[in-house]
Amino acid sequence: MSAAPIKGLEDLQRFSVTLEDHVATVTMTAPPVNAQDRIFRDELPRIFDVLHDTREVRAVVLTGEGRAFSAGADLRERPNLAGEAGAYPGHNRRVRAAFDAVMECGKPVIAAVNGPAIGAGCVLALCCDIVLVAEEAFFAMTEVDVGLAGGVRHILRFFSQSDARLMIYTARRIPGPELLRMNVASACLPKDRLLAEAQAIAKQIAAKSPLAVQAAKRSFFLTEEMPLHEGYRFEQTQTAALSSAEDTKEAQRAFMEKRPAVFKGV
């Protein structure tokens, strides 16, 4: 099956989205460095809401076109925000909505970080379920360099307390191999192999029961801040809900019959 566009996402200005073998590839196409402006932040939730509801999509890869993954917020918009009543609350709401859309999408999202991921670009990568980085990529939180602050809570999900503070206070770059050593990334690869590896992992995910994978993502998202007992209890409700699904019955039949399962997402 060749890559094809997804219905409802043909008119994007800052992204391109294609679908192949149940894997959607979302590419940031905002040259030169995929900076995040208002159009970017309006389109991102729309994309991930559509992917959430598109049954043919079972996993998603997010990457950047060109030399950067995303250099973060488009600072050219900042002067206009400061002098307009109500502008900052609206702006902040859009920023949260863009990140939340990735985290709340029912399909697992793999970040293929092809180059620098700075500020909001770093946060966007960390909103994904799985992070792969190119050897020349780096993460950086440069808000203190431009008199701003932000991203701490997202950084703390992946970095230790000391490393998070070092990163935020100094705005230093954390290169790809170091991100792998710190267990922030699952793999660090040559750039020319990065996208193919991300798509290969996505195809592995897409071959599993879609309902079970979505339940697993829901459990990761909702139990992150729960105590152990309550979190595991929630997971058990997911297993109970899946037990009567046709895909679950098919998976169990296929296991007993020693054949690949054929899933329909029901």
UniProtKB/TrEMBL annotation:
InterPro entries, from UniProt?
Answer: ClpP/crotonase-like_dom_sf, Enoyl-CoA_hyd/isom_CS, Enoyl-CoA_hydra/iso, Enoyl-CoA_hydra_C
Highest taxon listed in the record's lineage: Bacteria
Gene3D superfamilies on file:
2-enoyl-CoA Hydratase, Chain A, domain 1, Lyase 2-enoyl-coa Hydratase, Chain A, domain 2
| Pfam families referenced in this protein's UniProt entry, alphabetically | ECH_1
**Sorted alphabetically, which keywords does the UniProt record give?**
Lyase
Presence of keyword GTP-binding = no
Q: Which family does it belong to?
A: Belongs to the enoyl-CoA hydratase/isomerase family.
Supply the name of the protein: Enoyl-CoA hydratase/isomerase family protein
Question: What organism does this protein naturally occur in?
Answer: Pseudoroseomonas ludipueritiae
